[in-house]
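User: Reviewer 2 asked us to show a designed sequence for the structure in our supplementary figure. I'm pasting the structure tokens here. Could you produce the per-position amino acids so we can include them in the response letter?
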């Protein structure tokens, strides 16, 4: 997927796939944390939440870019 950003013209389907992947990453990270499948330390739990919010932020920015195409 990194090759999508190297194109002169970005295709909507490629960008949509990246957005879906980021949203899945965000949601599944939180699900894993909440479900108790893993038992991270307190710092690890904070890291998972911060990482999830960051990836969600990227997805939001990518959605705004998709609307501009």
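Assistant: Here is a per-position design you can include in the supplement:
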């Amino acid at each position: 997927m990194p090759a999508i950003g190297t194109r002169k013209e970005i295709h909507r389907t490629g960008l949509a796939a990246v957005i879906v992947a980021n949203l899945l990453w965000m949601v599944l990270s939180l699900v894993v944390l909440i479900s108790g499948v893993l038992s991270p330390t307190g710092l690890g739990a904070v890291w998972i939440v911060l990482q999830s919010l960051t990836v969600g932020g990227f997805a939001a920015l990518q959605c705004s870019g998709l609307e501009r195409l």
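For the response letter, you might also mention the following. Helices lie at 12-35, 42-68. The longest helix spans residues 42-68.
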